[in-house]
Amino acid sequence: MKSFRKYLAEFIGTFVLVFFACGTACVVGCDTKGGYLMTALAFGLVIVAMAYSIGNVSGCHINPAVSIAMLVSGKMGIGDFIGYVVAQFAGAIAGAAALIPFVPGGAGGGLGSNALFDGNIVLSLIIEAILTCVFVLAILGVTSKKENGAVAGIVIGLTLTLVHIIGIHFTGTSVNPARSFGPALFAGGDALKNVWVFILAPLVGGVIAALIYKILAPEKKK
Q1: Residue at 191 is within a domain
Q2: Are 176 and 67 contacting, i.e. CB atoms less than 8 angstroms apart?
Q3: Are 84 and 64 in contact (CB under 8 A)?
Q4: Which of 54, 90, 158, 188 is buried deepest, with most CB atoms within 10 A?
Q5: Are 168 and 29 contacting, i.e. CB atoms less than 8 angstroms apart?
Q6: Rounded CA gap, 16 and 23, in Å?
Q7: Rounded distance, CA 181 to CA 187, Å?
Q8: Residue 42 belongs to what domain range?
Q9: Residue 23 within any structural domain of the chain
Q10: Is residue 192 part of a domain?
Q11: What is the C-alpha separation between 174 and 7, in angstroms, rounded?
Q12: Which CATH number do you get for residue 21?
């Protein structure tokens, strides 16, 4: 039952992320500075909201890249990792499906899906890995001490806003395989064709962040 509650929390959190943040991108667009900033803030604010609502249940990963970093860091087992990732992808798919009747163009409008930077797969992989690494590194750092609990959600949310402020220009910013897969599944076309980039790169970025943090702050032997 405890595991089910954690997985349900991850499902809900990822649903909210896609519905509200990707929904904001669809509604306001990113063609203007105002829309660009509102989209970045939407992603960050969802993380803040979810961190303080489901964080005490599941840790509020709502992102396979975060979960794989926790796995590599030894903070979760393979069983929970699989359960989290399944719940996250299911939540993202449900969130994207729920958006379709409400946003301009429905699924044909893209649902906030990602796109390659200048059609370049390599550059898209690199920028997404870098953005994810920075985001996950901040999560590992701020959650490493219990006394940071009161501000952790705010720090993580602001960091996600930061990576979106620069990343939207390049790829629309994924840093989250589930967030990318949900919209791409319904948008189809190039979004679905290239979604593997936005699954692979964030996972690689999450692993790199975990390895870097192990070097920067190795656990003391008991």
Answers
A1: yes
A2: no
A3: yes
A4: 54
A5: no
A6: 10
A7: 10
A8: 2-216
A9: yes
A10: yes
A11: 22
A12: 1.20.1080.10
Q: Which residues contact 33 (CB under 8 A, 6 or more apart)?
A: none
What six digits make up the tokens of 37? 């900033």
Distance CA 142, CA 53 (A): 18
Token readout for 211 is 């390895």
Residues 6+ apart with CB under 8 A from 80: 3, 6
Could you give the CA distance from residue 129 to residue 176 in angstroms, rounded to a whole number? 10
How many Å apart are CA 99 and CA 109, to the nearest integer? Answer: 11
Contacts of 189 (CB under 8 A, 6+ apart): none
Count up the domains in the chain and report the number: 1
Residue showing tokens 């604010």 = 45
Per-residue pLDDT at 220 exceeds 90: no
pLDDT at 222 over 60: no
3-state DSSP call for residue 77?
coil
Of 39, 27, 18, 172, residue with least CA distance to 96: 18
Per-residue pLDDT at 221 exceeds 60: no
